[in-house]
Amino acid sequence: MAKILNIETSTRVCSVVLSIDGEVVSVQESHTKNSHAEQISLFSQKVVVDAGLKFSDLDAVSVSKGPGSYTGLRIGVSTAKGYCYGLDIPLISIGTLTAMAAGMKIKFNSNGDLDNTLFCPMIDARRMEVYTALFSNDTREVEGVTAKIIDSESFNDKLSKYKLIFAGDGAPKCKEVLSYQENAIFYDDFFPSATYQSKIAEQKYLNKEFEDTAYFEPYYLKEFVAGISRVKGLR
């Protein structure tokens, strides 16, 4: 029985889940912006206790590796690595968009036929840019992760052949310019969650697909660029 602590902090959502054999047994989530550093340790403690376990009972920690918020990813990965070091257990990383696609399949599966359908999870990257990838209806990646600027011509080649389901906090940008497309379907109120990592993490645990805890870094996709301070006297 693999007992895994799953952590997701790639967007404004701070989500921590305890799963056993791939099934979620306790969840803590917040959508409060910039709350990750304050809540992640508390959430981790609560899901473990709520599951009737101790940290020493954990078999692994899984963390959403990105792309996404630079700060959020740093907090999530640093916390996950700390637990792995302290408990001497393996670290599992899961692509944020891959987990989102798995969640989209769960959410959308009851709403219709998924034949000839692609999932397009999106994370807001400011202005008209998003982090995105395309996944088949069995959540296999068919177009790799990229930073994409959205306009009225985006995804035209795919929309002529497939239904595309868009979801995530970057999807509203697509809705603004692609809602005229008959094959474009928009799923509102969908956000990353550690819940969607649980089954992927379980399979990776069974396959022993672990990261080197010492050297693992988040997948930022784009380099972090610090802004110029606007505080008087700081340059």
User: Looking across the biggest beta sheet, what order are the strands in?
Assistant: 3-2-1-4-5
- Report the radius of gyration as a whole number of Å: 18 Å
Low-confidence spans: pLDDT under 50, at least 5 residues? Answer: 224-235
Q: List how many beta strands DSSP finds.
A: 10
The main β sheet shows up as: 5 strands, mixed
| Count, helices | 6
SS-derived structural category: alpha/beta
Task: List strands and helices in order, with pairings.
Elements (H helix, E strand, L loop, with lengths): L2 E6 L5 E7 L2 E8 L5 H15 L9 E5 L5 H18 L3 E4 L1 H13 L8 E8 L4 E7 L5 E9 L6 H4 L3 E5 L3 H8 L5 E4 L10 H9 L29
Parallel strand pairs: 1-4, 4-5, 6-9, 9-10
Antiparallel strand pairs: 1-2, 2-3, 6-7, 7-8
Helix pairs in contact: 1-2
Describe the protein in words.
The chain is an alpha/beta fold. The chain has two domains: 3-95 and 193-206, Nucleotidyltransferase, domain 5 (2-Layer Sandwich); 96-187, Nucleotidyltransferase, domain 5, CATH 3.30.420. The protein is 29% helix and 27% strand. It has helices at residues 36-50, 70-87, 96-108, 156-159, 171-178, 198-206, and strands at residues 3-8, 14-20, 23-30, 60-64, 91-94, 117-124, 129-135, 141-149, 163-167, 184-187. Strands 3-2-1-4-5 form a five-stranded mixed sheet, sandwiched between helices. A hairpin with a 5-residue loop joins strand 1 (3-8) and strand 2 (14-20). Helix 1 (36-50) crosses helix 2. The longest helix has 18 residues, at 70-87. It is globular and about 55 Å long. The termini are far apart. The model is unreliable at 224-235 (pLDDT under 50).
